[in-house]
Amino acid sequence: MTTIGTQESRSKNSRGHFTELLKVEGKLALRTPAGLGTGIGLPIILLIVFGLIGNAVGGTVGNTGLTIIDLWVPTIMVIGFTGIAVSALPPTLARYREIGWLRRVSTTPVSPSRILAAQIIINLILALATILIVIFGSEFIFGAPFTVGIPYFVLSIILSIAAIFSLGLVIAALAPSQAVASALSGGLFFLMLFLSGLWIQPSQVGGLLATIMYYSPVGAAARALLYSVFNQAPPYSTIVTLVVYTAIFAFVAIRYFRWE
């Protein structure tokens, strides 16, 4: 009975420590502009811009049969995920490692892995906020006629976030310092903006460039979401692409991540 009681007490203490850690990381996230700015602020700005352009121009884009707001909403969501996972997460973890916080926390009742878990949870909450803002904003403010297929949409969201967040963890694992992580994150973020179809959609360029865009992590994510918001099953090749990216990025991140 004493052993069982001790185990329950330790379990409660552990949950309590993790809850406090989540609160601290949440407060720090609110004070850090990277995640909020690129993960939520930028998608809101893009939604307003493309929504206003779509209302002013009208009609469909090329031979897609979709309006501007229809076509770009999945891209905007993916940009939000990328802003959170690539621009915010790696520099934060690299800073924690650089200042020795991950090493020092190992001497406390909180495991260093829980800091990583708390960071991922906080950033997943930001990603959820991005999804809700973009979907409801585009539908209720700009009249996007979505018929979201819930199973397809949930699958696409899970795979998209898994692939993009795993990519962010690769940067965090390989960057030796916060400065390097910030530089890598910045360069990769702008590359991902292009490949996601922000400036031009793959269907509008064709050829090899379109193939590269379709099968990049963000391009595959945007494509999967585009199908799912119109209640269609994402192409099998897109699903496989996201699964492969997730597996590769996760392996590299786990293999090379250092706590100190």
Description:
This protein has 260 residues and is mostly helical. It has helices spanning 2-31, 33-57, 68-98, 101-105, 112-140, 150-174, 178-196, 202-205, 207-214, 217-228, 236-256. The model has no long low-confidence stretch (mean pLDDT 81). The longest helix is centred in the first third of the chain and has 31 residues, at 68-98. Helix 3 (68-98) packs antiparallel against helix 5 (112-140) and helix 3 packs across helix 10. The chain has one domain. The radius of gyration is 20 Å and the shape is globular.
Which key phrases capture this entry?
260 residues; mainly alpha; globular
How many separate structural domains? 1
**Share of helix, binned:** over 70%
Overall average pLDDT: 81
DSSP E strands, number: 0
Gyration radius from CA atoms, angstroms: 20 Å
Spans of at least 5 consecutive residues with low confidence: none
General form: globular
What structural class do helix, strand and pairing data support? mainly alpha
Number of helices: 11
Main sheet record: none
Proportion of β residues? under 5%
In quaternary terms, these chains amount to: single chain
Question: How do the SSEs run, as a string of H and E?
Answer: HHHHHHHHHHH
